[in-house]
Amino acid sequence: MNTKIGTRGAGVSGLLQIGGSRRGLLLLNLCLLFVLGVVSLAPLAEAQNGISGQSYQTMRVRGQYSVVGGESLGEVASTVFVLDSANRELVSLRWNDSTKSLEGIGFRDLVLDANRDPDR
Length: 120
Known about the structure:
Elements: H1 21-41, H2 46-49, E1 65-70, E2 79-84, E3 89-96, E4 101-109, H3 110-116
């Protein structure tokens, strides 16, 4: 087998051939620059931008989580309580052995709960 390395036609589709490699790299850079421009000018998704109509100040902040294990009445599996202290939310989860996954039991918005009955 007598194969020469670096001969014309050895590149992928002839794009990165000797002598044409600069032209191919320039074309590749221009394509990547175009893709970068399209991606950076695309509008933000609602998950990034918050709910439509909300201002920057009312967007959800990064959470600070505390996890506590416990038991629920009438449940065989233990319950895990996850508190997001930055957003003041509480989620309770349980492990389902048959599906090998966590299932949500409940969710509470602690700000709404605190404001619901101020005399309490």
